[in-house]
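Lecture notes, unit on protein representations.

Consider one protein chain, 265 amino acids long.
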Amino acid sequence: MEPLALIAGNGSLPRIVCETAKSRGIPVVAVAFGAKAGQSLEGLADFKIMGIGEAEKVISHFKDAGCKKLCLIGKIEKKLIFENIKLDMRTLKMMGRLIKKDDTTVMLAIIDELESEGFEIVKQTDWLPALMPAAGVLGKIRPSDALKADFEYGMKICRDMASMEIGQTVIVKDGVVLAVEAVEGTDAAIDRGCSLGGSGAVMIKTSRPNQDLRFDIPSVGSETVRRLAKNNAAALVVEAGRVVVVDLPEVISLCDTAGIALVAI
């Protein structure tokens, strides 16, 4: 059977895609961007570790394996753009054509490059189980009216930030924005916001208004909750039906234990 090509970043989602493919009898040929990304694919995919700037090498690898369909999934840190990474000539030409380097512009350029070689970029949701919860309180912790006010305020701010390609996470408390996720990523935004606001902060994660399901579905998971618990946060809020919650039963259990309200709105 024709293998699925997988470009894997960090996190649990590449592993879940591999498990889904395996359950369908479809082999996976993967490229992992870094050793950490590769660890999650052990025993689930035929993978090689390559650099984020090795476009020609990545394309040749998938062509040699006979892949046609390709899935892009997992977290690739935006700060890599500003680090001293090695770029091959193909990557340099692709990046040189870009006027902006926000997430969506870069990812669409990558997709165009892959499609020009005949690959079909599949939706991430085609290879994920139902991981986007519907609206409601998901655990045992019921939010107070004061927290609910922060939910509504924070969600509006978060949607605005996402629409401007700044980030998809905000940290709020008592109607004050403590941190907005930018190039540093979600974990650093949590630490920064909670250090400024102290205990009782709220994290909100949302999607972009026109989320392209071929890349960058926003997600939270158990590590997110552990970081919030370490910082004595009060709540984790996700946009219902548009944010992936990885390992939802474990996330609910961790939130309940830590006294964190888990809510989809």
